[in-house]
Amino acid sequence: MHVSWEEFGWERLGHSAGRRRLPVWDATVALVAGQDGVLLYDTGSTLREGVELRTQAEALLGRRVTHIALSHPHFDHVLGTAAFSGAAVHGAVGTADLLARSAEELRADAMRHGMSAADATAATDALVAPRHQVSGESTLDLGGGLQVLLANVGPGHSGHDLAVLVPGSPVVVLCGDLVEESGEPQAGPDSVPSHWPAALDRLLELGGEDALYVPGHGAVVDAAFVRAQRDRLAARFGVS
Asked: Is the CB of residue 174 less than 8 Å from the CB of residue 184?
């Protein structure tokens, strides 16, 4: 039986990619499928969400997720990772050390945002840190001629922001929370405002004018939106 992406609430992004906006915190996850490998960008906020995403990915593609890229180490983007046993996990350099020492902080943050203690504890007890850390840029070959670029473009929204460039027509740039469409970008205690506009400049260099830019929260946007958000952030934080 053929299963469509739309049945599971996924939005197709060109030939090889799709994304889904998860409930509650509206965090986006994305799948990129090559001939041999499948990349999942972010894993949801709980183990339950991670299991649901794994089940959906296998139903949609007929095979398992082989690689995970974590956009940044905030609870609503990383706590489902343990559901993907055997997947190679990638993150910006420093993410692994941060997650290794911040499980209790992540648990508290998740609960502060309304997650149940049981879900927060289960996810942080099983917390998975990236074994593959990206400093600069790294190319991941998913087979069939599809090579995606993992780019450490931060710091900005956090101290460890990892974007993914998916080639094709159109080019797709997975931005994480460096870009937000459904609300103003959130600058928490680990954000680095002085570098955030430069991180958005780097996203625009990677994708170009005709790319689709996929924010961490909200609808897919274009280069003009990213540029306008960059200028607002620069004005907000007094950065040129």
From this structure: no
Mean pLDDT to the nearest integer, 173-194:
96
pLDDT in tens, 59-100: 999 999 999 999 999 999 999 999 999 999 999 999 999 999
Q: Compute CA distances 122 → 45, 81, 134, 181, 219, whole Å.
A: 11, 12, 27, 30, 30
d(CA 61, CA 63): 5
Taking CA 225 as the corner, what is the angle to CA 220 and CA 231, rounded to the nearest 5 degrees? Answer: 145
Q: Kindly report the number of other CB atoms within 10 A of residue 135's CB atom.
A: 9
Three-class SS state of 117:
helix
Neighbour tally for 72: CB within 10 Å: 27
pLDDT digits (tens, 9 = 90+) for 192-223: 999 999 999 999 999 999 999 999 999 999 99
Question: Residues near 72 by Cβ (< 8 Å), separated by ≥ 6?
Answer: 92, 95, 154, 157, 158, 160, 161, 162, 176, 177
Token pair in block for residue 227: 């540029």
**Residues, the chain:** 240
From 3, 1, 44, 35, select the one nearest 16 (Cα to Cα). Answer: 35
Interval 107-126 mean pLDDT:
97
Q: What residue type is 226 in one-letter code?
A: V
Q: Helix, strand, or coil here: 221?
A: strand
Of 86, 96, 83, 87, nearest to 130 (Cα)? 96
